Each structure stands twice: as C-alpha cells, then as structure tokens.
Amino acid sequence: MSLTTGPAPTATAGTATAVGTATAADGAGVGPLLRQWRLRRRLSQLDLALTADSSARHISFIENGRSRPSRAMVLRLAEHLGVPLRERNSLLVAAGYAPAYRESSFHDPDDPAMAAVRSAVDTLLRGHQPYPAVVLDATHDVLAANSGMAALLGGVHEQLLRPPLNLIRVALHPQGLAPRIANLGQVRRHLLERVERHLAIRETEPLRRLHTEVSRYPGPDEDDDDGGSTPSAPAVALPVRLRTAHGELAFVSTIATFNSPLDVAVSELAIEFFLPADPATAQIVRREFPSAG
Questions:
Q1: Which tens digit of pLDDT belongs to each residue from 182-197?
Q2: CA-closest candidate to residue 39, choices 50, 30, 48
C-alpha cells in the first residue's frame, strides 16, 4: 500500500458539461459510453487508437455497436481515457461483463481490507498533528479528520459541522470560514476551480449540486477581493489566510491519494494535509492547538 502526493487530478475545465452523462443504468451500450469519455478527453478515434494499440476502424466499430469489445479491450480503453474506477465497472456491465473493481465502504467495520486502509490513514492523520489533516471522498465530504482541524473550524456554525460535513461548503459558506478568510477572493476562485476540475474528470449529480450551491454564496467585494495582511515572504503556493483570536494563521495544503487503487472507495479517497505557510503560524498552532495524541 503506497501513497503519492500532489495536486488533485487535472483535466480541461468545462469539458464535462459538453458531453452527455449517460450511464449503464440508462441502458446505453458500451460503445456510446466509450464515445462520451473519448469526447470528454477531446481525443479523436485515431488518437485513442494510437495510444491503446488499436485501430481507428476498430474504435469506430466499437462506438457504433458493430463490434463487441473484449473485457480486456474495455479495460484498456478505460485506462487510456482516464476513466475512474466506478465508471470502469459501469463500462464493463454495459459490455456484458462482471465489474472488475470491488466497491467497499470506508467505514465498513466488517471489511478487513478497509480496516487496513483506515489504520494507514489514521497513522497519517495522527502523524501530521498538531497541524490539520482531513480525509475526503469524491464529493469533498469529510470521512475522517485529526484534532488539528480545530485550528481551522473554530467559529463555524454548528449546522455546518453536522455530518456529512463538506469541506468546500464549510470554507465558502457565509456562516462557515468565509468571513474569517482574509484572502477570500483567491481561495474562493481556487476552490470553485477545484470542483470544476473534478467535474471535468467525473461529473456526478452530487458534485454538480455542490458546485451550483457554493458558487451562489456571496463573495468579497471587488475592491476588497483579496484583502488581508501581506505575506512577509513570497508564497510558493496559495495560502489560506485565516483570522483567528490567536492571530492570523496561514496554511498551504497538499493532497495525497492511494497509488494504483483496486477498490472504488479507495480510488476516491483524498487526504488533505494543511501545512503552516510561515513560522508564526507554526508557533501559534503548536502553542494553542497541541496534538491530542
């Protein structure tokens, strides 16, 4: 089991809405579904054929239903199209095959494999204390968090902290962190673009509803778009500058995902680690929010 760190998956923003979102449950065959994914990725049939070691003629026959792809072919095309595991299962079902990837629940107490995942994640969360860290699902709902999140969530309205707590909603809601984020304009743009990138990769109704909801939240005035104190040193990544009773805290974050997952739930997990962006933040957090152990 390994973890790779880096930014969230990227794709051309906006492509998700250019193509329909039929699924196997809608009765669409595997050909039209593969065509939709190809168009999402803005690839021609020849482009896909070259990368998947096939021919444009074969790709065309598969897409128009004249040829039934083998199980291996479906998986190979899905791999080269960057199709998420959940949708790869849908493609296999639409082609008449059994799903290839198990679909577990992160909190299933009777699943020993997920118990191992939770143990590994818990080690990472504890190891990052006293700094905040959180485990997110594909819709940015919080599945687990460490005690360091208290440094971020103080003052958030109780209603927003009830399960399922959504990190994007908490950050941008008028009764969430938004009034205390000094550079709200920058953070708001970043988070909206982050959701849009996820939509371009995998458009789901819950994620689309979240984007619609949070994009309607009030933002800062243009004249005060990115107000707040000026960083003492050039930033290497966009910080979240948060006003607190202990002074202004500045965090940058990195995201970790499981490498080569074989389970749908594991493939959709993301662990976000918040790191102090300056020495003052590190000092305040260590003093005011010590690790709970």
A1: 999 999 999 999 999 9
A2: 48
